[in-house]
Amino acid sequence: MSAPTTPETRPTLIRPARTIWLNGRLYGDGETPAVPVTDHGLVVGDGAFEALKITAAGPFAVQRHLERLSRSAKSLELPPPDHAVVRGAIDAVCAGQDWQFGKVRITYTGGPGPLGSQAAYGPPNLVVIAEPMDPAPAIGTVVTAPWRRNENGALTGVKSTSYAENVRGLAYARSRGAAETIFLNTTGDVCEGTGTNVFCVFGSRVVTPPLAAGCLAGITRELVVEWCDVVEDDFTLAEAAEADEVFLTSSLRDVQAISRWDGIDHAAPGPKTTEIAAHFLARSAELVDP
Q1: CA–CA gap between residue 47 and residue 45 (Å, rounded)
Q2: Kind and range of the H or E element at 224?
Q3: Whether 127 and 143 share a structural domain
Q4: Is 147 found in the same domain as 26?
Q5: Residue 121 carries which DSSP code?
Q6: Is residue 135 pLDDT above 60, yes or no?
Q7: 123 is in which domain, residue-wise?
Q8: Is 46:122 a contact under the CB 8 Å cutoff?
Q9: Are residues 55 and 89 in the same domain?
Q10: Is the alpha carbon torsion for 210, 47, 181, 16 positive or negative?
């Protein structure tokens, strides 16, 4: 096992060029926009976010991401975000860019608030950032987290900025040479990854955990379920170990084959994963905002 990463041993990352929109103003790379230090997204993680891919065709599945942002805001009792404003911000940060692949992040917080868990004073802060990035590898490996997801928690199904648990989970994977960590829920069923949904192939049957298992309603998951023959059903870690194929989905991975889970090898990419990945690629190329 590798030594834990400390601030002194963390690798120096090269920051990509970014375009930032904050509360109606566009900032170029090198400019330093700021939100108040009392912003509730910073103080207590009281906010919601979305991350979506940009291709040469433009940002993908914007409407579905906006609808999920609204659901998250409602769960957090934040004012509903103005979709037209967010769309305008996305257009602004993407304008003039010729990236082959990139990422848009939308962050919507409660705004200024108390230094505690009482409700934010507001008004909310809205930040939209675009940056280029490399596509995810077609094949990855995963490990199982030692911690459980609570399928009945207050933030279950909410894409909240309270993401420290996922930061810990991803660090756990990286320290073990894997690309992603998979969480079980409190009943012992497979739930989700730190930023992914999980699919297992058993013969001709493709299965993904239902939302009741506690997983986030991923946009790519939603589209794969709509476009492909997929069953939503619970399965255990032991059952997953017997799967013929495993793949993950997310907005920035699309469909990613998994070659190893906790040291157990799986066909990667197997025939069913290859079929679903190709179908998703073709449909998403036809429908930029499905």
Answers
A1: 6
A2: helix 219-227
A3: no
A4: no
A5: -
A6: yes
A7: 19-132
A8: no
A9: yes
A10: positive
Q: What is the DSSP letter of 256?
A: E
Residue indicated by tokens 């979709």:
83
Spell out the alpha helix ranges (H) of 34-146.
40-43, 62-75, 83-94
Predicted confidence at residue 82, as pLDDT, reads 98
Q: In angstroms, rounded to a whole number, what is the distance separating the alpha carbons of residues 87 and 85? A: 5
**Shared-domain flag, residues 228 and 247:** yes
Beta partners for residue 264, in sequence order: 261
Report the half-sphere exposure of 143 (CA within 13 A, side-chain side): 15
At 239 the three-state DSSP class reads helix
In this prediction the pTM is: 0.92
**Prior bond of 123 cis (ω within 30°):** yes
Please report, to the nearest 10 degrees, the dihedral formed by the alpha carbons of residues 164, 167, 173, 177 taken in order: -150
Instruction: Kindly list the distances between the CA atom of residue 148 and the CA atoms of 155, 158, 255, in Å, as whole numbers in the listed order.
Output: 14, 16, 24
Helix ranges, 105-150 (H): none
H or E, element range at 276? helix 271-286
pLDDT of 11 > 60? The answer is no
Cα–Cα dist 258/254, whole Å: 13
Task: Work out the angle at residue 258's Cα, subtended by the Cα atoms of residues 209 and 62, and round it to the nearest 5 degrees.
Answer: 60
Identify how many contiguous H helices and E strands the chain contains and give both numbers. 7, 15
Tell me, what's the pLDDT at 29? 76
The predicted pLDDT at position 18 comes to 85
Query: Which run of H or of E encompasses 220?
Result: helix 219-227
**What dihedral angle (degrees, nearest 10) is formed by the CA atoms of 155, 160, 165, 170?**
130
